[in-house]
Amino acid sequence: MTATGLSGRSVFLVEDEVMIRMMVADMLEELGYKVAAEAGDISEAMRLAQSTEFDLAILDVNVNGKVISPVADVIMAKGCPFIFATGYGSSGLPEQYRDRPALQKPFQLEALGKTIEAALRGG
Questions:
Q1: 39 Cβ partners below 8 Å, 6+ apart?
Q2: Which pTM was predicted?
Q3: Of residues 95, 47, 90, 40, the one with CA closest to residue 66
Q4: Which residues pair with 115 in a beta bridge?
Q5: Which DSSP string do the residues of 43-108 spell out, in sequence order?
Q6: 22-47 per-position pLDDT tens digit
Q7: Which positions bear 4-aspartylphosphate (predicted)?
Q8: Burial, 110: exposed, middle or buried (Cβ in 10 Å; 0-12, 13-18, 19+)?
């Protein structure tokens, strides 16, 4: 499965669970995307969000017990689309971002691909 017309785009991935982060990075590569940067904590995510060029971000909602909102704020200010990944459902999203796309963990390759394509196309 490849991302039609969108492959080669870069993704910034924030996930505190190392094994999940590795799995999602592998899924992204299988879909034809490249991982621009990965972060496992909020301070690293803030630094990378400000200093790295990427086309889309996938953000774990709860990173080591901290809400991802400050990182989402930086990415939104850059005008870059982002997707949340959560095990808590849409009610677990930061209130100001409940209109953003969210993937319910655990998610499958097809769901990841469709959500990324929609986000990159502005849908």
A1: 12, 13, 14, 45, 48
A2: 0.93
A3: 40
A4: none
A5: HHHHHHHHH---SEEEEESEETTEESHHHHHHHHHTT--EEEEESS-GGGS-GGGTTS-EEESS--
A6: 999 999 999 999 999 999 999 999 99
A7: 60
A8: exposed
Given the DSSP bridges, would you call strands 66-67 and 62-63 parallel, antiparallel or unpaired? antiparallel
Output the pLDDT for position 122: 85
Site of tokens 């709860």: 62
Which pair of structure tokens corresponds to residue 112? 């990841």
Tokens of 46: 């803030």
Q: Report pLDDT for 123.
A: 60
Amino acid identity at 116: I
Each residue's pLDDT tens digit, 61-114: 999 999 999 999 999 999 999 999 998 877 788 889 998 999 999 999 999 999
